[in-house]
Amino acid sequence: MSDQTSCACPKCTCAVSDNAIERDGELYCSQACATGHADGSEGCGHNCSCGK
Ligand SMILES: [Zn+2]
Ligand SMILES: [Zn+2]
């Protein structure tokens, strides 16, 4: 289990909550972050540009 409170995406500061996506034991605020923005997305849908 993890007690992480913010997204594990390096540039993302979004809080993770009940709907967090877990990947490799870390919590992410969105699917885009969980995949490391492999889809080329620039953000996570929470008004940050963590994928740039
Ligand atoms: Zn974010
Ligand atoms: Zn991200």
Automatic annotation (TrEMBL):
Record-linked Pfam families: Metallothio_Pro
Q: Which UniProt keywords apply?
A: Metal-binding, Metal-thiolate cluster
| Stored InterPro entries | Metalthion_dom_sf, Metalthion_fam14_prok
Official protein name in the record: Metallothionein
Which organism is this entry from?
Kushneria pakistanensis
